[in-house]
Amino acid sequence: MNTDFDVIIVGGGPVGLLLACLLKKLGLRLRVLEKRTQPIAHSAAIGITPPSLQILKKLGLTQEFINSGLKVRDCFVHGQSGKLGCMSFRDIPDEHSFILALPQVTTIAILQNHLGAEWIETGCEVREVQQHAGHCVVRAGQREWTARHVIACDGWRSPVRQWIGMKAPARTYDLHFVMGDFIDRSGFGDEAHLFFTASGSVESFPLPCGQRRWIVQTDTHLDQPPQGLVSELTRQRTGIDVPLADQVNESVFTPRRFNCERYYDGRIILCGDAAHGMSPIGGQGMNTGFADAEFLAEIFSHGDPSPLLPAYDRFRRKAAKAAIFRAEWGMWLGTWHGLMPSMLRDLILRFLLGRESIVKRMGSFYAMLTIPFNTLQRVPQASLKPHAV
Ligand SMILES: Cc1cc2nc3c(=O)[nH]c(=O)nc-3n(C[C@H](O)[C@H](O)[C@H](O)COP(=O)(O)OP(=O)(O)OC[C@H]3O[C@@H](n4cnc5c(N)ncnc54)[C@H](O)[C@@H]3O)c2cc1C
């Protein structure tokens, strides 16, 4: 049957847009359907890791990303007993020896611009996806399209995942955070600083354009935090003055984790946060989604992607599992409350950060260089041949 498109991508977040750019390069007929009409109001994902910069190279976008962002090479860790050490990305074995700090809204803007407005339908909320023997039907209001495949990049709530009944057993952590971007007067420059204190964590990351993100742990989930909470908790826990008058935006989050039982069902494929969820504290969700997109583009390059969908499911689910675990582990260690646990954490971190060989490995670990199958290059090439599956 003739279809309107080869692929419809539901969701024009960072992962859907990157995937669209990669599929467009293959010459596929596609459309991105995105319900939003306005950009997101907060900075969300800010850390772009070296494997993602490799993926962006395929689109010739790495330099544009680097020019728009800020290179973070050092991350200082502070505990109850003062400075514990520094984790550096300077010596990681990659041509990009840094984490690029770039607000998600800028990532989206660059990808949208590269893709071209005519490939995206904004203000288009998909309400139904049906699949038939050789095609899918997608409906949004009165409008209807057909496509050979539908790729759900519609975020962690993923309506598409729910419509196909894909199980995604989730766990919500009893850990809560409020974050705000501020005009940066800290004097920290391009350094990241983590403060693990007895009364909760404070994390601080530089942003381009003279701003800095501050994330404070709170005891409960606060839908509407009292005004000035980020400033107040930062001052109490670190002694650093982050004036409320300098605050640009604010958001709250309570992390959760899940990894779908399967990343596809027939002609409907899940990608990015629709397929997996992990704590933002690890800074890996979008990067994991970028690698999903790269993998999918590869299997669509063979024509019919169906024979390689089991490989997509197997490799990308393994990669997400590792990222979910690492994000959880990092968040868990940083959020121990109370004086005794804090002193114990200080001992552990002082020991780890005092060993050069360990610090080197930590750099690669947090830069996602050691995530299994973090880019297509790390996937056994034989697994990417349709007849091999
Ligand atoms: C505070 C915070 C900090 C983070 N920091 C990092 C970080 O440093 N590094 C990192 O890698 N990750 C980070 N993350 C995670 C990252 O933000 C997500 O992993 C990323 O946004 C996932 O991208 P996505 O495109 O899969 O989904 P989303 O960004 O959620 O995009 C989904 C899109 O689908 C659209 N949509 C949904 N339903 C429909 C529908 N029915 N019809 C049409 N459109 C629809 C939505 O409007 C949205 O635009 C962070 C997250 C948070 C909350």
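^ flavin-adenine dinucleotide complex. The radius of gyration is 21 Å. Residues 5-72+95-171+256-334+355-388 form a domain with the FAD/NAD(P)-binding domain fold (CATH 3.50.50.60).
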